[in-house]
Design brief:
Layout: E1 2-6, H1 10-22, E2 26-31, H2 34-43, E3 48-52, H3 62-73, E4 78-83, H4 88-94, E5 102-106, H5 113-124, E6 128-130, H6 132-143, H7 153-163, H8 168-175, H9 179-192, H10 201-213
Parallel strand pairs: 1-2, 1-3, 3-4, 4-5, 5-6
């Protein structure tokens, strides 16, 4: 797997590169701004890019803009966006065109080597990764409005893990449940929220995120 890292903090991106390379992921380039990231991807598209939201020159949303441009021009390239802060509105902008091959994580997660490596691999394979803190805020925001009030506490837990991009098996492991209860909770969630159930994980996540954005 070939990855490009974009972050203006040299020490951070060097550390991230070492983490990824230690897991057998080839870091083909490191850049410090969105312009150089786009040029590098155009010249030789990697399997995935890892990009900070705030980069030069204004340190506002250059990385997010670059990520959206990459998703539009190179849909086969997975995009993992890193943020220093919980910014649900940025996550939703990134997911406007669907959740396939895209992720949004807080930079604090990089300290968990296994989690960040899994996230990079997942977006490169066309999956999705949404930081649990972002999901918690989105789910919490919806609790004050229908129809999420109809969900049980266990269904909210399953929904949150679904929105992170977790498979049913992963949900079983996280919540210490067997497959049948998780399948039942999943069916109930889609019924209560009037969302079409599907055996396809990507479409399932898209449906959940569409609800969270509404």
């Amino acid at each position: 797997m070939r990855v490009v890292i974009a972050d203006d903090a040299v020490l951070f991106r060097e550390g991230l590169a070492r983490v990824l390379e230690g897991a057998g992921i080839e870091v083909v380039a490191q850049v410090g701004d969105g312009e150089h990231l786009l040029a590098r991807v155009r010249a030789d598209p990697p399997d995935a890019v890892v990009v900070d939201i705030r980069m030069p020159p204004t340190h506002t949303r250059e990385g997010l803009d670059a990520a959206q441009s990459i998703r539009a021009a190179h849909p086969q390239v997975g995009v993992l966006v890193l943020s220093q802060y919980v910014e649900p509105h940025h996550a939703m902008q990134l997911l406007e065109d669907g959740s396939s091959g895209v992720g949004y994580l807080l930079k604090d997660r990089v300290g968990d080597v296994g989690e960040v490596v899994e996230a990079v691999r997942r977006v490169a394979d066309g999956g999705s990764v949404i930081d649990p803190e972002v999901v918690a805020q989105l789910v919490g925001r919806r609790r004050a409005r229908n129809p999420i009030q109809q969900l049980t506490e266990r269904e909210r837990q399953v929904l949150a893990l679904m929105a992170e991009g977790r498979s049913n098996q992963a949900i079983c492991e996280r919540l210490f449940l067997s497959p049948k209860p998780v399948e039942a909770h999943t069916r109930s969630i889609f019924t209560r929220l009037d969302l079409p159930a599907s055996p396809d994980d990507h479409r399932r996540v898209l449906a959940v995120l569409a609800f969270l954005r509404a």
